[in-house]
């Protein structure tokens, strides 16, 4: 069954409507809902998989920031009346998920981070990406993956079109700078939810040492590396990623049931 994007007020999202708890997937700065196709298919039979669009390109300019995105997620969760959330975020989406979990720990059952920003990241940089330079964008997108062939022309074209739209490009830079300012090192000890960290061994954007720092700073965290994989393990190594995520969610759900019994 093909899922259709829903638009309700200021919210755009996909929702599988499956049984069980909510698995909320948050995309990165240059990511999109299509990044999670393998997770939708793997988990829609056991969870209500929900993918909201982070409105980087539609927020009022004065609200374009990490805080603006966190507020949007909070409003969305409240609008949908979700509880006992399993949050999963890649890159900037992980950063947003962490900040939401710190604000509303009562709503969050678990956190999964894949190549999350929040401690250190090396991506486009803090300056406006060069417009009209297709090869530059192609090379940058390819660094997301261990195998450059994973970076399809359609994906490169999408990013190229984004940075060549001056309004969108400006918002990308504003969001990236806001993320750098929101370093989480002094906050991670306050995370109470069980946390799964999945990192590509060849991640050049948030290198492996970043995953190790997250594991050290988050009280209840476990870290797994995937070889021959870079910044988007849920796309590049979906089978390994889904196995790790599925096992983690089962353990967390079992523990939650045991505590309630």
TrEMBL record:
Domain AB hydrolase-1 stretches: 22-238
Pfam families, per database record: Abhydrolase_1
Leading EC class: hydrolase
Protein EC: 3.7.1.8
GO molecular function, one term: hydrolase activity
Keyword set, alphabetical order: Hydrolase
Identification of the protein by name: 2-hydroxy-6-oxo-6-phenylhexa-2,4-dienoate hydrolase
Organism for this UniProt entry: Neolewinella maritima
Lineage of the organism: Bacteria, Pseudomonadati, Bacteroidota, Saprospiria, Saprospirales
């Amino acid at each position: 069954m093909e899922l259709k994007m829903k638009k309700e007020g200021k919210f755009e999202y996909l929702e599988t409507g499956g049984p069980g708890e909510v698995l909320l997937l948050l995309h990165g700065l240059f990511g999109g809902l299509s990044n999670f196709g393998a997770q939708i298919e793997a988990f829609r039979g056991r969870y209500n998989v929900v993918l909201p669009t982070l409105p980087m390109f539609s927020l009022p300019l004065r609200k374009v920031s990490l805080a603006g995105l966190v507020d949007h997620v909070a409003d969305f969760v409240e609008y949908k009346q979700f509880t006992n959330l399993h949050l999963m975020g890649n890159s900037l989406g992980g950063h947003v998920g962490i900040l939401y979990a710190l604000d509303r720990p009562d709503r969050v059952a678990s956190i999964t981070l894949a190549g999350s920003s929040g401690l250190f990241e090396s991506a486009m940089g803090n300056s406006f990406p060069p417009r009209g330079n297709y090869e530059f964008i192609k090379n940058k997108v390819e660094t997301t993956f261990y195998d450059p062939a994973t970076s399809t022309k359609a994906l490169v074209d999408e990013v190229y079109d984004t940075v060549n739209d001056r309004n969108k490009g400006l918002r990308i830079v504003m969001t990236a700078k806001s993320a750098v300012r929101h370093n989480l090192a002094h906050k991670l000890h306050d995370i109470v939810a069980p946390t799964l960290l999945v990192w590509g061994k060849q991640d050049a954007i948030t290198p492996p040492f970043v995953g190790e720092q997250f594991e050290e700073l988050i009280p209840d965290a476990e870290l797994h590396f995937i070889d021959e994989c870079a910044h988007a393990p849920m796309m590049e190594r979906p089978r390994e990623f889904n196995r790790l995520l599925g096992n983690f969610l089962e353990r967390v759900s079992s523990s939650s049931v045991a505590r309630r019994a």
